[in-house]
Design brief:
The complex is a heterodimer. Helix content of chain A is 73%, strand content 1%. Chain A has a domain at 252-458. Chain A has a two-stranded antiparallel ribbon. Chain A has helices at 2-17, 23-39, 62-80, 89-111, 115-124, 126-136, 141-171, 176-182, 190-206, 215-222, 225-246, 253-276, 282-303, 306-337, 348-351, 353-366, 373-388, 392-415, 431-447, and strands spanning 50-51, 57-58. Chain A is built from 19 helices and two strands. In chain A, helix 1 (2-17) packs antiparallel against helix 4, helix 7 (141-171) crosses helix 10 (215-222) and helix 14 (306-337) crosses helix 17. Chain A is mainly α. Chain B is an all-alpha fold. Chain B has one domain (3-344). Chain B is 70% helix and 0% strand. In chain B, helix 13 runs antiparallel to helix 15. Classes of the chains: A mainly alpha, B mainly alpha. Chain A: Residues 112-397 form the NADH:quinone oxidoreductase/Mrp antiporter transmembrane domain. Chain A: It is a multi-pass membrane protein. Chain A: Its EC number is 7.1.1.2. Chain A: Residues 1-109 form the NADH:ubiquinone oxidoreductase chain 4 N-terminal domain.
């Protein structure tokens, strides 16, 4: 794993030593090369995990997330070029350093074996993200957004630290590879109920669960484009990944402890999808749609069936790419009109037809059109939740309908109709932007040809 | 101050603490405390003003009371055990009075009221000595009597200190008061683990001293004592703002910075000793601390705080000397990967 980690750490000296006209080229190229290295991890031959050392391993669950993380860094760099173009050189280098640092921590988080190491790196991802949101965001609300983001996550995850240490006392080691085989049922007691809560709340806040989701619209809206992309695509999936790992140790309490969270998720996905229909702010719409998709993942993880795990993993990867692409599209609107209000940038199909094609593809994958992997994820989750309880089909069906409604609402409002009379001169789509969208869409479409690599370890 | 006099006084402060740390006779320890107290009063009053006089008086009164309480505990110990050697204090009365006396010296709740007011009244350099060097002597005595300390009293004081340190700092804009409340909270963390594993108290003390030294050096460099004047730093020396950001986040206990290491180790030791609710509560209360540190970073490093135009071309009359800043920065932010080395302390 060091073959990925050390080059990513080395991206930081690369930015500081590059010349002024080469920083974007150097960093984007080398981060693309690093993502090519990580692709080799997708080859998981047998049902076991690939163990590189005592500290890092890669599993059919963590490999696709790792590839997504490393794929996203060059995309983030490409997306940030425009809004950073007017800044002094040192600030550009600082921004790229923050992104590279965040990338390092994310890679180490997804491949950590020791759960305390996972925890430390999970928390460590907060610091660069806070700096990116607060330093480079554009509105005054970003200060509040940073505070909400930091404190919601920290209050959720400090009990997790205590819980992990007490589990280490009980079982002797927190190395993930060992725990898989030692696993015993947790005895039934009040303190184990609190242990369950302490372990899960950190990831519930990160996902986010419906009642604890207030930080997400603030943080996603106020962050600059790279911050929004990494938040939506990867940081939410940290919660899902953590939940998938830790529920293995928490049986049989999960059978009854999961009910409140299942109810909150099922209700929350309908609520947040419905709120999307009433949003005026484009980024806020995409943020709430993230909450809705992640609620599906929470339902899938808490049901704990093989099909639901496959659905959760596929949905995480698919949503990562789709949501990141939608944020890039929203950003291309923002850079032209300097406003996130949807109705101020209507009828763009007549002005920017190629971008309209990307909008169409992104919206179609967001509403889980067959045969995209979004559909595979959602379908597996719907089927497994139907087998868990027949009534959930009503809520799931309603959610799919409302998702389709708001995705098409977003598409039609921004693309169709007559363009506004105040868009006199907007710049045509840059090649960089088209490349960005293509690089998002291509993995998404190609994965629908071979989805088994993202279906996780229960395939 | 005349340099020779200043040297003599500083040496007396140093000698006082050394006598406390190296003695095995209780009377010598008391003498060391008194020597330290008497010599530090001129240091606190270096910049003469009525406010400094008030601060020195408050400091003298509380520390003298604490020394007298300590003397009473020593005499009770003498009465019951017949010897002056510093070992485990067998008599519970003497042990409790000694703990309270040392808590008063350190500034633990409920004896914390003097810390913000004294720190605010003195100059930044004196505040630095007050919050770092002066904590060494009482902590060394607590370390030596740790097997006999009443757990209930110490844990109550520790948890209340963390709470007061976090809550009290929320309404502050004066940097010295913020550092004072941070010192109260950190003392709380240090004394919470004293009974279970005194080595971690020393670790926490070491890292706390490094972080506080760094913070004070950065404040001295920009000669700022309020949040408002600290927010002008991006005009004068933008690199200092990055260093302030890193050190403040480290003081708040965020991974992957080294301020997380003592908190993590303390939580681990407490959990191994089967207290689960206590470290959870302590950790969540430490978030109050993190809140006002983050607010400080917002005005200093993470935003370009509004300032008048003439701040951007400010005359700098002399470059302040900041001693040892680069190693301190490294020590206060990058030590977390060295955590496995703690095994050498066994």
């Amino acid at each position: 794993m060091l073959k990925i980690i050390i080059p990513t750490i080395m991206l930081m000296p690369l930015t500081w030593l590059s010349k002024k006209n080469m920083i974007w080229i150097n960093t984007t190229t080398y981060s693309l090369l690093i993502s090519l290295i990580s692709l080799s991890l997708l080859n998981q031959p047998n049902n076991n995990s690939l163990n590189f050392s005592l500290m890092f391993f890669s599993d059919p669950l963590s490999a696709p997330l790792l590839v997504l993380t490393t794929w996203l860094l060059p995309l983030m760099l490409m997306a940030s070029q425009h809004h950073l173009s007017k800044e002094p050189l040192i600030r550009k280098k600082l921004y790229i350093t923050m992104l590279a640092m965040l990338q390092t921590f994310l890679i180490m988080t997804f491949t950590a074996t020791e759960l305390i190491s996972f925890y430390i790196l999970f928390e460590a991802t907060l610091v660069p993200t806070l700096i990116i949101i607060t330093r480079w965001g554009k509105q005054t609300e970003r200060l509040n957004a940073g505070l909400y983001f930091l404190f919601y996550t920290l209050v959720g995850s400090l009990p997790l630290l205590v819980a992990l240490i007490s589990i280490q006392n009980l079982t002797g080691s927190l190395n993930f590879l060992l725990i898989q085989y030692w696993n015993q049922a947790l005895p039934d007691s009040w303190s184990n109920i609190f242990l369950w809560l302490a372990c899960m709340m950190a990831f519930m806040v990160k996902m986010p669960l419906y009642g604890l989701h207030l930080w997400l619209p603030k943080a996603h809206v106020e962050a600059p484009i790279a911050g929004s992309m990494v938040l939506a695509a990867i940081l939410l999936k940290l919660g899902g990944y953590g939940m998938l790992r830790i529920t293995m140790m928490l049986n049989p309490q999960t059978n009854f402890m999961a009910y409140p969270f299942l109810m909150l998720s099922l209700w929350g996905m309908i609520m947040t999808s419905s709120i999307c229909l009433r949003q005026t702010d484009l980024k806020s719409l995409i943020a709430y749609s993230s909450v809705s998709h992640m609620a599906l993942v929470i339902v899938a993880v808490l049901i704990q069936t093989p099909w639901s795990y496959m659905g959760a993993t596929a949905l995480m990867i698919a949503h990562g790419l789709t949501s990141s692409m939608l944020f890039c599209l929203a950003n291309s609107n923002y850079e032209r009109t300097h406003s996130r209000t949807m109705i101020l940038a209507r009828g763009l199909q007549t002005l920017l037809p190629l971008m309209a094609a990307w909008w169409l593809l992104a919206s179609l994958t967001n509403l889980a059109l067959p045969p995209s992997i979004n559909l595979i994820g959602e379908l597996f989750v719907v089927m497994s939740s139907f087998s868990w309880s027949n009534i959930t089909i009503i809520l799931m069906g309603a959610n799919i309908t409302i998702t389709a409604l708001y995705s098409l609402y977003m598409l039609i409002t921004t693309q169709r109709g007559k363009y506004t009379h105040h868009i006199n001169s907007i710049k045509p789509s840059f090649t960089r932007e088209n490349a960005l969208m293509a690089l998002h869409m291509t993995p998404l479409l190609l994965l629908s040809l071979n989805p088994k690599i993202i279906l996780g370890f229960t395939y | 101050m005349n340099p020779l006099i200043l040297t003599i006084i500083l040496m007396t402060v140093f000698l006082g603490t050394m006598i406390v740390m190296a003695s095995s006779h209780w009377l010598m320890i008391w003498i060391g405390f008194e020597m330290n107290l008497l010599a530090i009063i001129p240091i606190l009053m270096k910049k003469y003003s009525p406010r400094a006089m008030e601060a020195s008086t408050k400091y003298f009164l509380t520390q003298a009371t604490a020394s007298m309480l300590l003397m009473m505990a020593i005499i009770i110990n003498l009465m019951h055990s017949g010897q002056w050697t510093i070992t485990k204090v067998f008599n519970p009365t003497a042990s409790i009075i000694m703990t309270l006396a040392l808590a008063m010296k350190l500034g633990l709740t409920p004896f914390h009221f003097w810390v913000p007011e004294v720190t605010q009244g003195i100059s930044l350099t004196s505040g630095l000595i007050l919050l770092t060097w002066q904590k060494l002597a009482p902590m060394s005595i607590l370390y030596q009597i740790s097997p006999s300390i009443n757990l209930n009293i110490l844990l109550t004081m520790a948890v209340l200190s963390i709470l007061v340190g976090g809550w009290g700092g929320l309404n502050q804009t004066q940097l010295r008061k913020i550092m004072a409340y941070s010192s109260i909270a950190h003392m709380g963390w240090m004394t919470a683990i004293l009974v279970y594993n005194p080595t971690l108290t020393m670790l926490n003390m070491l890292i706390y001293i490094m972080m506080t030294l760094t913070m004070f050096m950065l404040f001295i460099h920009s000669s700022s004592t309020t949040t408002l004047s600290l927010s002008h730093t991006w005009n004068k020396a933008p690199l200092i703002t990055t260093l302030i950001l890193i050190t403040l986040l480290s003081m708040g206990g965020l991974p992957p910075l080294s301020g997380f290491m003592p908190k993590w180790m303390i939580i681990q030791e407490l959990t191994k000793n089967s207290s689960i609710i206590l470290p959870t509560l302590m950790a969540i209360m430490a978030l109050l601390n993190l809140y006002f540190y983050t607010r400080l970073t917002y005005s200093t490093s993470l935003t370009m705080f509004p300032s008048t135009n003439n701040m951007k071309m400010k005359w700098q009359f002399e470059t302040k000397q900041i001693t040892l800043l680069p190693p301190l920065i490294i020590a206060s932010s990058l030590l977390l990967p060295l955590t496995p080395m703690l095994s050498i302390l066994d």
